[in-house]
Write a structure and sequence with these properties.
single chain; alpha+beta; Protein Transport Mog1p, Chain A; 7-stranded antiparallel beta sheet; 4 helices; about 25% helix; disordered N terminus
Length: about 170
């Protein structure tokens, strides 16, 4: 289900980008510090440990590496984090969700729908890039999405996504 959700998110972003309009604004962040972030809770009745929140795996230094000086890591929701530029509207969204191994296909479905999508190696167990640089990969129980739809940083989009994806994969 998480893979289908990621596919849906990717297609939605592609439609928004293609239309040139985006009216959604992010809800106010509850905090902007790594230490104050708490992991998402496991499903009720589950004995599984909670997956970490992406804000607990990334630092302001990580954000500055891809977005420039003053960039911040901001908690967006129970499973999402935003890396935000201090000088522009450029940002990167990072999500960690429970991986459903029954439907995870390592991007095969996305690659059929988006001919520019490609396999990514060296990050997690399997992964793929789509939408000009966004990366989705699996590691353990986690499905991680690094969404680059609003990235306008100083380096190529895929390179920035790869840096963030490798930092998250290394910390999981």
């Amino acid at each position: 289900m998480a893979h289908l959700r990621t596919l849906s998110i990717g297609l939605t972003y592609a439609l928004v980008i293609g239309s040139g309009a985006c009216s959604k604004s992010a809800p106010p962040a509850s905090d902007t510090t790594q230490a104050a972030s708490t992991p998402a809770q496991p499903p009720a009745g589950s004995n599984a440990a909670a997956l970490p929140h992406p804000c607990t795996l990334l630092t302001a230094t990580d954000a500055e590496e891809v977005l420039g000086p003053g960039a911040q890591v901001t908690r967006e929701s129970e499973s999402a984090c935003r890396l935000k530029s201090a000088t522009s509207d450029s940002e990167i969204e990072v999500k960690i969700e429970e991986l459903d191994r029954d439907i995870w296909d390592g991007g095969e479905t996305m690659m059929k729908l988006d001919k520019s999508a490609k396999k990514v190696t060296g990050i997690g167990e399997s992964g793929y890039a789509f939408m000009g640089g966004s990366i989705v990969f699996a590691k353990g129980r986690a499905e991680v999405s690094v969404i680059m739809s609003v990235y306008k940083g100083p380096m190529p989009t895929f390179e920035a996504a790869e840096i963030i994806a490798k930092k998250v994969a290394g910390a999981l």
